[in-house]
Specification:
Blueprint (H helix, E strand, L loop, with lengths): L8 E8 L2 E10 L10 H6 L7 E12 L1 H17 L2 E5 L3 H9 L7 E3 L2 H9 L4
Parallel strand pairs: 2-3, 3-4, 4-5
Antiparallel strand pairs: 1-2
């Protein structure tokens, strides 16, 4: 019997200057997107994509194609609105999917929060 997927949850972890540090819990999957509101949009609000965010994936269980598409859509929205998003602390199973998708060509991915913070702080330097 397959393990039950945990719902995608986005939590606010901290703020470092003008950078918002968020954490992902559960399955990065939007297969039920039509019935559930987007957790990142709920947390960020209407002008959220103009911010700099670090997205900690340490507690992500898995990443499927619908979740990858969801990340791509948010990444594009951040770029369009003048914000930025850096993924970090990616667990091996999720990193394997990102590697197959050649995500390093689209996303900024850091090994940990410190490096991710340096990446977004370097944008304005």
């Amino acid at each position: 019997m397959a393990a039950k997927r945990r719902e995608l949850e986005i939590i606010r972890m901290s703020t470092q200057g003008d950078v918002l540090c968020l954490g992902v819990r559960g399955s990065i999957s939007r297969d039920r997107a039509n019935t559930q509101p987007d957790p990142l949009d709920n947390l960020l609000g209407s002008h959220g994509h103009s911010h700099k965010i670090l997205l900690n994936l340490m507690d992500a269980d898995l990443l499927d194609s619908s979740g990858y598409s969801w990340l791509l859509n948010h990444n594009s929205a951040f770029r369009e609105k003048g914000g930025s998003m850096v993924l970090h602390s990616v667990p091996p199973l999720v990193m394997q999917v990102l590697g197959i998708m050649r995500a390093e060509l689209v996303f900024r991915i850091a090994p940990d929060e410190m490096v991710a913070l340096q990446m977004v702080q370097g944008e304005s330097a």
